[in-house]
Amino acid sequence: MTTPPAPVEYAVAVDHYLATLRLTEASRRVYRIALASWTWPLVRRAAPPGRARRGAAAPIVPLALLDAPDAADRLADALAWRAAVADPRTVSRELSILRGAVTWWRTRGWVRGDPLARLRAPATPRAAPRGLSPEQVAAIFDLPAGLREQACWRLVYETAAPVERLLALNVDDLDLVRRRLRADPGVRWGPGAARLLPLLLVGRSQGPVFLARRRASPGTPVRDRCPVTGRGRLSYRRAAELFTTATRPLDPDGHGWTLRRLRAAGVAHRSGEGRGPSGGAVPA
Fold this sequence. Notes:
Strand content: under 5%
CATH class of the largest domain: Mainly Alpha
Structural class: mainly alpha
Radius of gyration: 22 Å
Strand order of the largest sheet: 1-2
CATH architecture of the largest domain: Orthogonal Bundle
Distance between the termini: 64 Å
């Protein structure tokens, strides 16, 4: 089989690479966003921050720039900047996606060198994330965020359960009267989540507790789609992004906090190491 000539544009090379992968629609979109995000540093421009990065039109970049003498330095700078503002797991995933694409392009002869040879993903911290103070937690709950976000944050803090588990909940998993999960009564929440969850779930008795803003794609499993609104389940990546963006004004470093830190604060408060943001102990 004859190898086609190298495409001129990076975006076209991305299309060829993604066509070889067996991905869901959602995963393909994640891959495309991740690969597009590396185009800005190749032309010495900063990628749009936060949510704006997902919908921004990436610059037109010649694929040959990956073989430029300073391509490795540009990508290293971009990796360092990204590592300063994003979760290490997110950065590692984005670098891994680019590495897979570059490896495939090199096997086709479209890229000669390896601009990623010196790049290493940031180390994922093994220690438990540092929690937030009661004053910081109180400031979070005072933010002018939407009902979905406030209910999610309250549930994370008051249950101290893994965020992924909470986002995977469906409406019928909740015992709203007893403030606990039906299948696991040990996961309980306090008055904050108890006040917000019924408001969030008005008119819904099935489907995901936390919904994305967009309608679900046709291939979305029934469990991950609301039968009333047709919207899909809120993803961890989007929930984390929303929280970090919302808390950026509260963070002295200006980066924003992570949901893992909010959960760590909940763990500490539930175990008696701290007190709730209102001055009382967080209910067990």
